[in-house]
Design a protein that fits this description.
neurotransmitter biosynthesis, cell membrane, 500 residues, Aspartate Aminotransferase, domain 2, PyrdxlP-dep_de-COase, synapse, 5-stranded mixed sheet, alpha/beta, Aspartate Aminotransferase, domain 1
Length: 500
């Protein structure tokens, strides 16, 4: 390793080593899109620990050993680009985004000042402005930042809402403000409560509002709870809930927030990318009324992880809320426009360059409407190929689309590309006792998922929701997925569950 650059005469060895690494990566990319390969070569943790020497040693390894470690790491990695990987909201692998990620790592700089990241800072500026225009804010005015994921973006929004109402909290802390209350749907992401805990507001101050059967927040319940007690300062509406993919009624929520002078945030981490779709952006009608919006291009837009933006309607608020005037970074007598030194409005000091992946993909694809088409592709797979019977468990429903008569939708008319369904194996299909059937059904998805991972052929997630027992949640966000891959998933579930 001592022979690699910046060692003298290290050019040849360095280039040879890096080329071998690139060869490993390229082979993995090709393999990831090959349907004949496994999605995962699964081993239990103790097995995987014993199969390879993962411990850190006291002596440096050789370059050959390093290459072996690279191959082993990818051998046991989950192939999230595989067309039959339906497990998470973030799937797929975009080649332009990947190239941008390689360039970003090579540049190896920090986003806190224009001084050390001039091009990246400008690209963040123009891209955030474009995203604000798409939201519907006049001339793209406002502010924003790329953060390490939607959970942090949501926490930023809560931090800004509190500061806007009680600016003294920055210096004096929570003892200087009354007991606050934040409001969000019972189907919202757990990051809202996590943010409240991190900011010292407390999870008990997050009031969960009832959702209807499709997962949408009920505005009447929101208004009722706002009037009940503590000082309301923050409402988080969800555009694309994690499990159901539901879109809260933003216009009705914004009317309530305006009436009671409460900050309105839209968590569009999952569904925000539908703003790029001419056919589906109506699901976010009213988003332009929000004070802040979370939007994760690393989900529906297939930008490589991580890429999450917080967009803020009020310009300057982030700076006032977060700045600490560190004189060794943010000198006031620099020779350029200091507004491009964005680090003081962030909670982080070191901030990864997340913008280049999104910017380069946008540059490469929007001219040909590829980003729009990719989003429409996901929606088409959901709406055209997937029809499941309603959750009444009838016994003889003819096969429709990809689904067998033993698969039943958790709710009707999915709003996004989340498809939630139960599979009834033969052993419980004709049980007459509803409670007994429900008890057994709860155990079905975990068993099938475990078998699925051991075979490694496909992956899909499962979970309960409220009073509903475990069901499968298939997420369609991989540009490589086809109708045939969805057929394969369902057939695999049936194959793995036929003896249950």
């Amino acid at each position: 390793l001592a022979d690699l650059l910046p060692a003298m005469d290290g050019d040849t060895k360095t280039m040879t080593f890096l080329q071998e690494v690139v060869d490993i990566l390229l082979a993995y990319i090709v393999e990831s899109f090959d349907r004949e390969t496994k999605v995962v070569d699964f081993h239990y943790p103790n097995e995987l620990l014993q199969m390879n020497n993962w411990e850190l040693q006291d002596e440096p390894a050789t370059l050959d050993d390093i290459l072996i470690s690279c191959r082993a790491t990818l051998k046991y990695a989950i192939k999230t680009a595989h067309p039959r990987y339906f497990n998470q909201l973030s799937t797929g692998l975009d080649m332009v985004g990947l190239a941008a990620d390689w360039l970003t790592s090579t540049a190896n700089t920090n986003m806190f000042t224009y001084e050390v990241a001039p091009v990246f800072v400008l690209l963040e500026y123009v891209t955030l402005k474009k995203m604000r225009e798409i939201i519907g804010w006049s001339d793209g005015r406002g502010d924003g930042i790329f953060s390490p994921g939607g959970a942090i973006s949501n926490m930023y929004a809560m931090l800004l809402a509190r500061f806007k109402m009680f600016p003294e909290v920055k210096e004096k802390g929570m003892s200087s403000v009354p007991r606050l209350a934040a409001f969000t749907s019972e189907h919202s992401h757990f990051s809202i409560k996590k943010g409240a805990a991190a900011l010292g507001i407390g999870t008990e101050s997050v009031i969960c509002i009832k959702a209807d059967e499709s997962g949408k927040l009920i505005p009447a319940d929101l208004e009722r709870r706002i009037l009940e007690g503590f000082v309301p300062f923050f409402v988080s509406a969800t555009a694309g809930t994690t499990v159901y993919g539901a879109f809260d009624p933003l216009i009705a929520i914004s009317d309530i927030c305006k009436k009671y002078n409460v900050w309105m945030h839209v968590d569009g981490a999952w569904g925000g990318s539908l703003l790029m779709s001419r056919r589906h952006r109506w699901k976010l009608d009213g988003v332009e009324r929000a004070n802040s919006v979370t939007w994760n291009p690393h989900k529906m837009m297939s930008v490589p992880l991580q890429c999450s933006a917080l967009l803020v309607r009020e310009e300057g608020l982030m700076q006032n809320c977060n700045q600490m005037h560190a004189c060794y970074l943010f000198q006031q007598d620099k020779h350029y426009d200091l507004s491009y030194d964005t680090g003081d409005k962030a909670l982080q000091c070191g901030r990864h360059v997340d913008i280049f992946k999104l910017w380069l993909m946008w540059r490469a694809k929007v001219g040909k409407s590829s980003l729009f088409e990719a989003i429409q592709h996901h929606c088409n797979l959901k709406s055209s190929s997937l029809y499941l019977p309603q959750p009444c468990f009838p016994q003889n429903i003819p096969r429709s689309g990809a689904f067998s008569p033993c698969s039943f939708c958790v709710f009707t008319q999915p709003q996004h590309t989340n498809v939630c369904f139960w599979y009834l194996p033969p052993g419980i299909r004709y049980m007459e006792d509803k409670e007994e059937r429900k008890k057994h059904l709860h155990k079905v998805a975990p068993v099938i998922k475990a078998r699925m991972m051991e075979y490694g052929t496909t992956m899909v997630s499962y979970q309960p929701q409220g009073d509903k027992v475990n069901f499968f949640r298939m997420v369609i966000s991989n540009p490589a997925a086809t109708f045939e891959d969805i057929d394969f998933l369902i057939e695999e579930i049936e194959r793995l569950g036929q003896d249950l």
